[in-house]
Amino acid sequence: MTERNIRSSMTLRICFCGVLAAIIFVANYFRIPFGDTKLHLTNGLCALSGLLFGPGLGFVAAGLGSGLYDIMAGYGAECLITLVSKGAIALVAGLIGMGLIRKQRLTQADVIRVVIACVVGALTYVALYMLKTYIFGMWVNHLGTDATLVKMGTKLPGSLINAVFAAIVGPVLFCALKPALKSAGLLEKL
């Protein structure tokens, strides 16, 4: 590959990364009421960014889109925490799903790997969100152990429901986008 092709490919990857960050940003505004929680596509899109771009650039797309949402929605004080925790979904999914985007055809084992990547990425977010809730409860809000654990207990079911939703959305989008990107001649440039 020539230097010009490498630069062109990297430019295209950065543009796709920016587009996915923008999609993640906008997706944060769309929430579906589901019992006591609200489902959103964001975590599934964060996992998708890791599968499409790999752990590094996926982290950037997921983290930037989610962090910018926090700033615009009035949660600016937590935007760096969100950048890292949502970026972690992409990082983990990208590490587990490394190289799947380049495969010509996905085997059944590859699809299972995509699902595992999304599940583990989403559960990584749940763990980080629970850690953040614990730290804020204990040392920022000074709630005490019992109150902090109760708060964590109230947030855990909704977080787990969103993790399940991400484990469905991420693989479906990946398996739908991969052939579309291939037919458009863009797959090999990612």
Which word captures the global form? globular
Average pLDDT reading? 93
End-to-end gap: 14 Å
Helical stretch count?
A: 5
Order of helices and strands: HEEHHHH
Overall structural class, as computed from helix and strand content, comes to mainly alpha
Residue stretches low in confidence (pLDDT < 50, at least 5 long) are: none
* Quaternary structure type: single chain
Largest sheet: 2 strands, antiparallel
| CA gyration radius, whole angstroms | 17 Å
Query: What percent of residues adopt helix (DSSP H or I)?
Result: over 70%
What's this model, at a glance?
The protein has helices at 3-27, 42-72, 79-96, 108-140, 145-183, and strands at 32-34, 37-39. It is mainly α and 190 residues long. Helix 2 (42-72) runs parallel beside helix 4, helix 2 crosses helix 5 (145-183) and helix 3 (79-96) runs antiparallel to helix 4 (108-140).
Could you name the key traits of this structure?
single chain, 190 residues, mainly alpha, two-stranded antiparallel ribbon, 5 helices
Description:
- Helices cover 77% and strands 3% of the residues.
- It is mainly α and 190 residues long.
- A two-stranded antiparallel ribbon has the order 1-2.
- Strand 1 (32-34) and strand 2 form a beta hairpin.
- Helix 1 (3-27) packs across helix 2, helix 2 packs parallel to helix 4 (108-140) and helix 4 (108-140) runs antiparallel to helix 5 (145-183).
- The radius of gyration is 17 Å and the shape is globular.
- The model has no long low-confidence stretch (mean pLDDT 93).
